[in-house]
Write a structure and sequence with these properties.
Elements: E1 3-7, H1 15-26, E2 31-34, H2 44-47, E3 51-53, H3 62-65, H4 73-79, E4 88-93, E5 108-112, H5 123-127, H6 134-153, E6 160-163, H7 166-176, E7 181-182, H8 189-193, E8 206-209, H9 218-226, E9 232-235, H10 241-245, E10 253-257, H11 264-270, E11 273-276, H12 285-291, E12 296-299, H13 304-307, E13 313-316, H14 321-335, H15 340-347, H16 352-367
Parallel strand pairs: 1-2, 1-4, 2-3, 4-5, 5-6, 6-7, 8-9, 8-11, 9-10, 11-12, 12-13
Helix pairs in contact: 9-14, 12-15
Length: about 375
């Protein structure tokens, strides 16, 4: 079976690209279509295939400035032609990938990480006062109706929608008026479950890990720990780095920048707990932390409610520094009942093999194949 994979862009290797890697393993002969591709930015499994890009690829400096071209993304994905004798188009979409035109008669299944979040419910997280300059906010307000309309209507090109969580399935229903099945994304459990459960949390620090994107709300953690005499280690970087790191911070808050993937299991295991501050579509990092046997202190909305349980973490009810600080203060008492083996067992429910089996079943349902038929 010949498959065309479609992904928004290939510039960084984060959660969405890890999903794409699992899809590439499931369909090893699939071709890949994307808006832009920075060679060498992806895993060998992604890089080692035919990759076709849009006209945006030819803009000088596009790989570092691609967000500035958001209004052009719909046109670029529609102009990206899938050429070849394909049996299936499978898009991995958090922006515009699901809007590609499949060849006539070729079914299109879209795995949706989120509707275009910056134009819907998280608009103010990206473009609100203090988040960006006034001209940028004005421009975003001007194009928002067009992008919302396109985001909704282009979904009609998809034959079957699969959401990465019940949370996103609800957004698909609300914003697109479509129903979606749910397949949680995979977690690379093997490298996190290799660390022993015994002796975890001995580093004495709380850990925040992720991209410095507006909706990730690292600012909530930083402000909370200004009031706490407890170490906070921050891993990552991103578009908000200059704003978040410009002012003076207490010495017990450390920025580690990006760290190698090989260092993450030990960072998780030695942390007292992972802090998870965004209202995330799904959220891979809480499961990585739990795979190493560590608990999570999470904002009690969004995908975290599907990956963290009362036995494996604490929830704080409001996305504010005060609410997070209160949860951290409660942690000492809560931690006495925590069992690392419960956290690992929870993470193991989200394995790569289970994801691939579920996607295989979605493909079979779309194509009317008998269960268990080969999809590669």
């Amino acid at each position: 079976m010949k498959v065309a994979l479609v992904h928004d862009w290939l510039v960084t290797h984060r959660g969405g690209e890890r999903v794409l890697d699992a899809l590439c393993e499931l369909f090893p002969r699939a071709d890949l279509y994307t808006l832009i591709h920075q060679p060498g930015s992806q895993s060998p499994r992604i890089e080692d295939r035919r990759i076709t890009t849009s006209f945006l690829q030819h803009i000088p400096g596009i790989h570092s400035r691609y967000r500035h071209f958001l209004p052009l993304f719909p046109r670029a994905i529609e102009a990206l032609r899938i050429t070849g004798d394909y049996d299936l188009v499978l898009s991995s979409s958090h922006c515009v990938a699901k809007g590609i035109h499949a060849p006539p008669g070729v079914p299109h299944l879209s795995y949706v990480h989120a509707p275009m979040r910056y134009m819907w419910d998280l608009f103010d997280e990206y473009f609100g006062p203090g988040r960006t300059r006034l001209p940028v906010r004005a421009a975003a307000l001007a194009v928002r109706p067009y992008l919302q309309h396109w985001d909704r209507t282009s979904t009609q090109r998809v034959d079957r929608l699969v959401a990465n969580s019940r949370h996103i399935a609800g957004k698909i229903r609300r914003f697109w008026d479509r129903e979606a099945s749910v397949v949680p994304p995979p977690v690379e459990l093997e490298r996190f479950t290799q660390v022993p459960l015994e002796g975890g949390g001995q580093g004495g620090y709380f850990l925040w890990l992720g991209a410095f994107a507006p909706y990730k709300r690292l600012d909530v953690a930083l402000e909370a720990f200004r009031t706490l005499d407890t170490p906070l280690w921050v891993v990552g970087t991103g578009q908000e780095a200059s704003r978040l790191t410009s002012g003076p911070l207490p010495p017990h808050i450390r920025f580690l920048g990006n760290v190698p993937d090989s260092a993450l299991p030990a960072l998780y295991r030695d942390a007292r707990a992972l802090l998870f501050t965004p209202e995330e579509d799904f959220g891979i990092t809480p499961l990585e932390a739990q795979a190493t046997g560590r608990p999570v202190i999470a904002f009690g909305k969004g995908g975290a409610l599907e990956t963290v349980t009362p036995r494996t973490g604490l929830f704080f009810p409001e996305q504010t520094p005060a609410s997070l600080a209160a949860a951290v203060r409660q942690f000492d008492a809560w931690e006495k009942t925590f069992r690392p083996e419960d956290a690992r067992a929870q993470a193991e429910r989200f394995s790569r093999a289970r994801f691939q089996q579920a996607i295989q079943a979605e493909v079979e349902a779309l194509l009317g194949m008998s269960p268990g038929s080969p999809a590669v």
